[in-house]
Amino acid sequence: MSLVVKNSTEAIHSIQLKEKILVLKPGNNEVTEKQWAEIKANHICNARITSGKYILIEPDAPADKKESKGEALSGYDAKTAIELVKGTFDLVLLTKWESEESRSTVLAAVRAQIKDTESK
Questions:
Q1: 79 CB contacts (<8 Å, ≥6 apart)?
Q2: Across the chain, what does the average pLDDT equal?
Q3: Looking at the DSSP assignment, which residues form a beta bridge with residue 31?
């Protein structure tokens, strides 16, 4: 299952993980559970978590991994998912969520955020 991590700074952060470099852009970012575990294990990143610079947005309920297909927004109710979308400025991630999302209200929010982000 994918998780959503908020980078509450205004800077892009590159984090060396075991298999790749992970980029956390300002706003909400999608990471895997494995990546989050590596982030927490890194002493610099752990300090950023403790100081509130990186915030894991906890899913509302545990997603059924058989049904989830890794969709980050599937673990959140529609209201929370819409708030996550509004805090996301990564067009690649928004476009991914647009292709995965089936709830009409969340899909409308994703499309509106894409339009707003593209206009900036």
A1: none
A2: 90
A3: 3
Number of Cβ within a 10 Å radius of residue 82: 19
Chain segment 63-85, per-residue pLDDT in tens: 444 344 446 798 899 999 999 99
CA dist., res. 9 & res. 13, Å (int): 9
Mean pLDDT of 21-34: 96
Do 39 and 5 contact (CB within 8 A), yes or no?
Answer: yes
Average pLDDT over residues 23-38: 96
Q: Which residues contact 49 (CB under 8 A, 6 or more apart)?
A: 39, 40, 55, 56
φ and ψ at 119, to 5 degrees? -80, -5
Task: Break the chain into its structural domains and give their ranges.
Answer: 2-118
Confidence at residue 71, expressed as pLDDT on a 0 to 100 scale: 66
Q: Please tell me the pTM assigned to this model.
A: 0.84
Closest C-alpha to 29, from 47, 12, 51, 48: 12
Query: Could you tell me the CA-to-CA distances from 12 to 22, 24, 50, 103 in Å, in that order?
Result: 10, 6, 18, 30
